[in-house]
C-alpha cells in the first residue's frame, strides 16, 4: 500500500453559511467499496495511461504550458504524457474545501468535507409537462425552471442551461441564460464552458453583479463543468472555457463523461481507470495555471445499453462508479461531484426508482456537488416540470434523513412512557403535543390519505399532484431584489456583446 500523501492545499471557508438556509451535511461515514489493494490497482492503471498513452490536448498554448511544467509533449499528434510525480505534485495545491459566494449571502454554499450542494438539472434541449408533452425548450421554460430552483430551499445552486432556450439565437443565447440566472435567482449559478465566449461573458457578467473582478477572484461565485471528450481528449472549446474561468479564479469541476462500452472500456475497472486519468490530468492543469484555484473531482461514469448503444443511467454499474469516484476523490483530498440521473421519458414510477437508485450512491459516496439533482429525464435530454417536483421530494427526504436523530433525556421520553403506561397511547400526552407539528417530515408531494379520501380528492397520481405544485409555485414565485443599476449594466453589456457577436443581427 502506498504511503499516505502529505496535503499542502488550502482550505478556504471565508464565508459561513448564514441566514435561514441550512446547508445539509452528510452524517454517514463514506462507503469505500474498494480494498486498498484494488484502489492502488485503479490508480496505477490511471498513471500508466497518463505516462504511456497520454492525453490529446487541442490547444497550442496549452501544449506550451504542459511542456514548461515538465510534461512530454508530442506536437505531431498533440499528445501530452505526464508522469505521476508531476500530477501528484500539482494537485496538492488544490483546496480540499472552499466557499461559493451567492448574490444573497444567505445562500453561500461550502464545497467539500461532509457538505452537500444540490444543483438543478443542466443541459436538456427539451422541456416536458403532462399537459403539453415534450417540446423544444424556450426562454420561458428556462425562466420557469430558474424560478422553481429559487423557490425550493433544497435546491442550493442554479444549474446552467436548465432548459436550452432554443427560441434564441444559438450564438448569443448564453447571454440571455446568464441574465435570467442573475435576475430571477440570488443563489450561486453554474454557467457554461462551451468555448471562450460562453466563459468570458459569464465572468464579465458575474463581475458586474458581484462587485468586480478582484472581488470574484477572492470570493468565487460560479462553478462550471469541464467535460473531457472521452476517450483521452480535451477539445478546444472546453480548454478555452476552462482557461478563462481559471484565470478569473472561478471554480471548475473536471468531469470525464465516460460510458463503459462506448467512450471507455466495457469493463468497469477499465472505465474508472480512464476516468481517473482524465480527471487528474485536468485537475493538474488547473493548478499549473493558477495554484490553489478551486477545483472539484467530477465523475460521470455509467454504461451503454449494448443492445441499442444508448446511454444507460441509474444502473448497478453506475452506482458502483459513483461510489468508487468518491473514494478516489477522497484519496486526493478533493471535493467530489456526482449526479442524479434517470432514463425514463415521463414522470412515472421508473423516473422515481431510477433517481432514488442514483441518489443513494451519491449519498453513500459523499458527493459534495450533485448536479442534475432536480428535473432530469430521458438521459438528460428533457427538463421535466413534474420530475423537478418529484426530485425535490426525494431531496427533501434525503435532507431530512441527514438531520439524524437527537438522543438526550428529553427525546428518550421516559416520563411520557411512564405517564402512558401499558396499553395506552401517546396522542394526547404533553410530550407529543409539544412536538407534533415539527417532529416528523411532512411531504411536499406524497399522498398519505386513506384510499377513500384520496378517491374523493380526485384520485390524483403523483404526476398530477406534481404538475399542480409546479404551477402553484410559479404563480406564487417572488423575485429576489436586484439593484437597478446592476440590472441596467447587465442589459447594456448584453446589448454590446450581442452586437459584437452578431454584427449583422
Biggest sheet strand line-up: 6-19-18-15-13-11
Stretches where pLDDT is under 50 for at least 5 consecutive residues are 1-20
- Overall mean confidence score, pLDDT: 94
Largest sheet: 6 strands, parallel
Report the sheet-strand fraction. 5-15%
DSSP helix fraction: 40-55%
CA radius of gyration? 24 Å
Provide a count of the helices: 18
Shape category:
globular
* CA(first)-CA(last) distance: 62 Å
Kindly state the number of beta strands: 21
Q: What class would the helix/strand composition place it in?
A: alpha/beta
Task: Summarize this structure as a short list of keywords or feature phrases.
single chain, 505 residues, four-stranded mixed β-sheet, six-stranded parallel β-sheet, alpha/beta, 13% strand, 21 strands
Your description of this structure?
The structure is a single chain. The protein is globular and about 80 Å long. It is built from 18 helices and 21 strands. A 6-stranded parallel beta sheet has the order 6-19-18-15-13-11. A 4-stranded mixed beta sheet has the order 2-3-1-12. A 4-stranded mixed beta sheet has the order 8-7-21-20. It is α/β, with parallel strands linked by helices and 505 residues long.
What is the structure about, briefly put?
By secondary structure, this protein is α/β, with parallel strands linked by helices.
